[in-house]
Design goal:
The complex is a heterodimer of chains A (103) and B (395). Chain A is mainly beta and 103 residues long. Helix content of chain A is 11%, strand content 38%. The longest helix of chain A has 11 residues, at 9-19. Chain B has helices at 21-36, 53-56, 62-70, 85-98, 118-125, 131-135, 140-155, 159-173, 187-192, 220-225, 255-268, 285-294, 303-308, 325-329, 333-348, 390-394, and strands at residues 3-10, 45-49, 76-79, 104-111, 195-197, 200-201, 211-219, 232-240, 277-279, 319-320, 362-369, 374-381. The N and C termini of chain B lie close together (7 Å). The chains are: A mainly beta (103), B alpha/beta (395).
Chain lengths: 103, 395
């Protein structure tokens, strides 16, 4: 019943053009949470961390914080990396986006 | 502003498998009109608060659906403002009457939510958040968890403090036969419930609910003709904030709610301290702690303390969420903002049964959309209450 509006090739192409602006940038965690029940497209990744990051220029951005063996904390330093995001089926294209790794 | 609430009705809230959106809407609309003691032909316009019908039931154009139910040709407009759809619909009806175009209006809020799996409803609800938040796999619990962690850090509150809010609302809900969860909870039960998005647990969250609520509103002149002694809406204000939580300076307060409340107090000519009871938007326990502060009932960082001391319980200083709130009464998103006013009306009419408060003359409702992107505040006084300054009469 519900269309998958999120995995649209045009939308992914449009968003991909801006991802390089963040890649490699560092910032600090403002707040974070561990999601145990994710929305459709993320259910199989649970549990996963997500949070608000503040970049050095003061810009704030939300994103997933990847599990790199380090537990997040407020003020943890993070770096933007490229990762697969929501799950797609075999006919859909694979979606990549910015996630954050704790330094 | 003086808009009389002529009639009000709430359906049972819950997981109502045998009821469709149409059944719920019909029951609430007929119930409100019957309670108002008017005829359908006396209703001149209607507003329908609904957030998710297009996504959940595939039914858009619910204004026309309501026209079919009522057998009417009056103008009916759907209002969507996420979980503030109901409150916003009430405000639109107030403004339509204030404009002088209409003397009476029906407001309906309805939502049918339990037909979908949780992961799907979560996607639907996240339509009220920003694209970046959706792409991060955040849920609404997740977004409020980000606020809760910041609130804990800033003010030293903890998970048990929030649990007390759920316990208090369940106590009120246990006295409300229309509530989805009419039973009490203990702090230990809340603390032992599973973590959804830390620090928020299952029993910190309002549920997925089917339900509807309706109001019949009328101009002062029309109400006088009927000799009405019913409650009067004396302020109706709405404010906006960024769609994205990350674009806000402060994660421990909703600026839109503060603005809407401040303007509503000015319009009504009353102050926060005058409000005797309130229905606030406790979609998650942390939201009620922040609401008490944003509305000026408590200083910043002291909302959770007031709850812990029992000040917000029935019989306390200022009872909050006598209906059980979103937590225990349930949260059919488009209906919630309308239901809050139904509860205020019931309390002022002395019809609230076991949860009746004696301090029932001046009340406030606080309805939030998304993470605070929309905030709607109404102030209502009973027919017995004289609290309205000369200044506000001019407004």
């Amino acid at each position: 019943m519900m269309m998958n509006k999120n995995i649209s090739p045009i939308k992914i192409w449009r968003e991909a053009k801006n991802q390089h602006k963040y890649l490699g940038k560092t910032g600090n965690i403002v707040s974070f949470t561990q999601i145990n029940a994710g929305p459709a497209g993320f259910e199989k990744q649970a549990p996963y961390w997500a949070g608000i990051m503040e970049l050095q220029n003061g810009e704030r951005i939300v994103g997933q914080i990847i599990n790199s063996g380090k537990k997040p904390a407020v003020k943890s330093k993070v770096i933007a990396i490229l990762r697969r995001t929501r799950e797609s089926n075999k006919k859909e294209i694979v979606q990549y986006g910015i996630k954050w790794r704790i330094l | 502003m003086k808009i009389t609430i002529l009639g009000a009705y709430q359906t049972k809230f819950g997981e109502l498998w045998d009821k469709s959106l149409k059944d719920l809407s019909s029951e609430a609309a007929f119930g409100a009109v019957e309670d108002a003691g008017v005829l359908f032909k006396d209703i001149q316009t209607a507003y329908f608060g609904n957030k998710m019908s297009p996504q959940i039931t595939g039914q858009n154009h619910v204004g026309s659906l309501l026209a079919e139910i009522l057998g009417t040709d009056i103008p009916i407009t759907r209002i969507e403002a996420a979980c503030a759809s109901g409150g916003s619909a009430v405000r639109q009806a107030c403004m339509a009457i204030e404009s002088g175009q209409y003397e009476t209006a029906l407001v309906l809020g309805a939502e049918k939510m339990t037909d979908l799996a949780i992961s799907e409803i979560s996607v639907g609800l996240m339509g009220a958040a920003s694209e970046q938040e959706r792409e991060s796999g955040l849920s609404f619990v997740g977004l409020y968890a980000l606020m809760a962690r910041k609130y804990f850090d800033k003010y030293g509150a903890g998970e048990k403090d929030l649990a007390a809010i759920a316990v208090k609302n369940h106590f009120h809900g246990s006295l409300n036969p229309k509530a989805q969860f009419p039973f009490v909870l203990t702090i230990d039960q809340v603390m032992a419930s599973s973590m959804v998005a830390d620090p928020l647990k299952l029993l910190d969250c309002s549920p997925i609910t089917d339900g509807a609520a309706g109001l019949v509103l009328a101009s002062e002149k029309y109400a006088k003709k009927l000799g009405s002694k019913k409650p009067v809406i004396i302020a109706s204000k709405q404010a906006s904030d960024t769609l994205s939580l990350s674009k806000r300076k402060d994660l421990t307060s909703l600026a839109g709610a503060e603005k809407a409340a401040g303007e509503a107090y000015r319009q009504a000519g009353v102050e926060a301290k005058d409000i005797e009871f309130a229905e606030v938007h406790d979609c998650f326990t942390i939201a009620e702690a922040m609401a008490l502060e944003d509305l000026g009932f408590c200083k910043k960082g002291e909302g959770y303390i007031a709850v812990g001391k029992g000040k917000t319980r029935l019989g306390g200083e200022r009872a909050i969420n006598l209906s059980g709130g979103l937590k225990a009464c349930g949260h059919p998103v488009g209906a919630t903002g309308v239901k809050q006013l139904v509860e205020v009306y019931s309390q002022m009419m002395g019809r609230a049964g076991k949860r009746q408060t004696k301090k029932n003359k001046l009340a406030l409702t606080h309805n939030i959309g998304g993470t605070g992107g929309t905030a709607v505040v109404h102030i209502v006084r009973s027919a017995k209450c004289k609290a309205q300054s000369e200044k506000s009469k001019k407004e």
